[in-house]
Amino acid sequence: MLTIHGIGKTYVEPVLMDVSLHLRPGEALALTGENGAGKSTLSKIISGLVTPTTGSMQLAGAAYAPASRSDAEALGVRMVMQELNLLPTLSVAENLFLNRLPQRGLGWIDRAKLREDAHHAMAQVGLDAIDPDTLVGELGIGHQQMVEIARNLIGDCRVLILDEPTAMLTAREVDLLFEQVDRLKARGVALVYISHRLEELARVAERAAILRDGRLVHVDAMHNLSSDKIVTLMVGRDIGERIDLGERRIGTTAFKVQGMTRGHAVRDVSFEVKAGEIFGISGLIGAGRTELMRLIYGADRADSGEVFVARHGGTLAKVNVKSPSDAVNQGIALITEDRKGEGLLLPQPIAANISLGNIGAVSRHGVVDAKRENALAQKQITAMRIRTSSAAQPVSELSGGNQQKVVIGRWLARDCTVLLFDEPTRGIDVGAKFDIYALMGAQAREGRALVVVSSDLRELMLICDRIGVMSAGRMTGVFERDNWSQDALLAAAFAGYAGRDKILSEPAEPDTHVPDTRKPDAHITEH
Fold it and tell me: Whose C-alpha in 31, 60, 74, 402 is 20 to 30 A from the C-alpha of 393?
């Protein structure tokens, strides 16, 4: 279906070199590699967003050189990008059919037909409950991701590229996506599937192509590749299967949220986190997890609720947080899930983005000291293993995962009591995830209180001491490490939608596969 010959791309330096591949009809090819390995660049070349410096392509035996994304889509080559490509001020239906709006008479949109077509497209990805007239900007990131996927499944499709399509999806949405993937393969569509979740590759793909530093290092059938072998080929070294979060002394309560409420999105949520503790928040898309983080951080105004932060000496004090700057001044940091929209100044260099959360440490008399700023940035670049040519490189030129590392690095450079992580490993490769987990462990060992929101339940079970579960805006359960199981956590996630308002705190069967990370000799496993 698609043949790639010697594709290369050079900006200031080569980022992709002499890549040759072929895609067969009805086959899914897993494309994997570390952040910055060239996966997104290759995908953008195939989908017409980037012009290659060298090489050529053929689509169904004919020369293929799209000048734009529209050219590629007209030929049946589509891409669901990691970063969303939606217009927030238009409705879901309008976004789905923006280039093919049904007409009624001269210049009039057939709204009834548009809603009908949108309902059908949305049902394929499990968005039946959403009104097609809802503005996309009013949806959470997870639902927006499903709209983006639905948009690319409309019409003729010969080659479909999925770039980290499940990064913001929970298990239910992932299953719906995989059902669609199976249908597409049965229709003869060739798929490129990019993901750092290695277990997904085995479920979806027949073959895997592994990139490292811009070069294709290995192509093989999935059944010949173990997760360990893929990781080793990706990073060029054996990173090991375990990580030690180290010995942590869980102290007194360092952070407390009481009765946090905003409309139906967040309803009377209360929880507390102790010094040195990692508290996870799980739940389905739309459960209110991100909305809760935004209320705590002052990005949205709460109808009611109080926040308490421990002062020196361990005494809890109520803090008044009406804006993000208030939160930062009170020692609360947020690593947002929407790094491009809310977390970064994309045209600015890495140094400016990292120092943004700690201007006082890099300035004199109100003027930024370039040497201090660069020194701070270089420290975080090294600690976070950010792939970059220098601290002066614009953040917009980095891969998605490295952009996320810049956001995290900014707050790790500041002495905050409370760290709120909203999807911290979204779009980050396996090796870098271990780095992030280690950094979280280091912050917890220093006595900070960590709150981690993640759509990856396995991730929360690996790194957290306790997990709170959100469902329909409420906290329906808080589970201790020794008293949780995946079934119990999932039951709590669905509880709010079944009309069950009582707290699910009964002891569950312990998950023997997940050891206690608070012990000095404990390890967590990736698989």
Answer: 31
Mind listing the domains of the chain with CATH numbers? 2-242 (3.40.50.300), 244-331+416-519 (3.40.50.300), 341-415 (no CATH)
Which residues are bridge partners to 14 per DSSP?
10
User: CB–CB of 459/489 below 8 Å?
Assistant: no
User: Helix or strand or coil: residue 25?
Assistant: coil
What global pTM score does this model have? 0.59
Closest CA to 34 of 435, 439, 525: 435
How would residue 413 be classed by pLDDT, with cut points 50, 70 and 90? confident
What's the CA gap between 117 and 203, in Å, rounded? 30
Number of H helices and E strands in the chain, helices first, is 16, 24
Four-CA torsion 383, 388, 390, 394, nearest 10 degrees = -110
pLDDT band for position 244 (50/70/90)?
A: low
Closest CA to 59 of 20, 111, 32, 23: 23
CA distance 292 to 265: 8
Helix, strand or coil, per DSSP, at residue 153: coil
Give the C-alpha separation, 510 to 294, whole Å. 32
Report the distance separating Cα 122 and Cα 93, nearest Å.
9
Length of the chain in terms of residues written: 527
